[in-house]
Write a structure and sequence with these properties.
The chain is α/β, with parallel strands linked by helices. The chain has a single domain, classed as NAD(P)-binding Rossmann-like Domain (Rossmann fold), CATH 3.40.50. A 7-stranded parallel β-sheet has the order 3-2-1-4-5-6-7, sandwiched between helices. β1, α1 and β2 form a beta-alpha-beta unit. The longest helix is centred in the middle third of the chain and has 29 residues. It starts with 14 loop residues before the first strand and ends in a 6-residue tail after the last strand. 46% of the residues are buried. The model has no long low-confidence stretch (mean pLDDT 94).
């Protein structure tokens, strides 16, 4: 898998916002966009990882600590970002948590609400805040990171699966609402991707999940970033409200 060709600057003169952008799939997407000459607003709650991102990528990024479940914080950070870059063309909603791993009846209401807030509410809030800027440009791409669990509803991950199923449904509605505006909205449903998020899974769950992937391995960050960056580009022009499988055959 190639990591982006600087001689083909698909994102020159584009500004992207990536939530959860300081690690995992989000960071891989940030790196890919910057390699292809994009400028990126990176939102995360991990200050140390944000600083690492800023140190590595320099003026191409604006790294901001933002709680994406807090509408006031979103509005404030986006206003600051617009002062810096003056435009917004691309949004990748990558912030997410796995949450509790066990039977649904052992999940507390507080745990349930937290997963819904981070995975689903944030996708709604950030996209809602970004929309006026995307619409003003008359061109935009929104990519929501969901999960193959949205279709499977696997054992012991009820909150996570429900939140990601919500992201898929939200993507479909957003795509239809924005059809004809120049703004396209699509989702990606990864299975296991080799990120630190996998550390939140029990060894038993990880082994069982891996056994269900026909290709027999976890996906790579480069593979995830390649698909997401295509969905962010002008090359993707006749797809909206769609869900793209990234599961090694597990989701089919």
């Amino acid at each position: 898998m190639t990591a982006g060709n600087p001689s083909m600057p698909r994102f020159k003169d584009r500004v992207a916002l990536v939530t959860g952008g300081a690690s995992g799939i989000g960071r891989a997407v940030v790196d890919r966009l910057v390699r292809e000459q994009g400028r990126v607003i990176v939102w995360d709650i991990d200050t140390a990882k944000l600083e690492t991102c800023r140190a590595a990528l320099g003026d191409a990024v604006l790294a901001q600590r933002v709680d994406v479940t807090d509408d006031a914080a979103i509005q404030s950070a986006l206003a600051e970002a617009m002062q810096r870059f003056g435009q917004l063309d691309i949004l990748v909603n990558g912030a997410g948590i796995v949450g509790p791993n066990g039977p649904f009846w052992e999940t507390t209401p507080e745990q349930w609400d937290r997963v819904m807030q981070v995975n689903l509410r944030s996708t709604f809030l950030v996209t809602r805040a970004a929309c006026p800027h995307l619409l003003r440009r008359g061109w935009g791409r929104v990519v929501n990171i969901a999960s193959v669990t949205a279709n499977e509803g696997p054992k012991n991950l009820a909150a996570y699966a429900a939140s990601k199923a919500g992201v898929v449904g939200l993507t479909k509605s957003m795509g239809k609402d924005l059809a004809g505006t120049g703004v396209l909205v699509n989702a990606v449903t990864p299975a296991l991707i080799a990120t630190e998020l996998l550390q939140q899974l029990s060894p038993e769950y990880y082994a069982a999940a891996l056994s269900r992937i026909p290709l027999g391995r976890a996906g790579t960050l480069d593979e995830a970033a390649a698909l997401v960056s295509w969905l962010c580009s002008e090359e993707c022009s006749f797809s909206t409200g769609a869900t793209y499988d990234l599961s090694g055959g597990r989701g089919l």
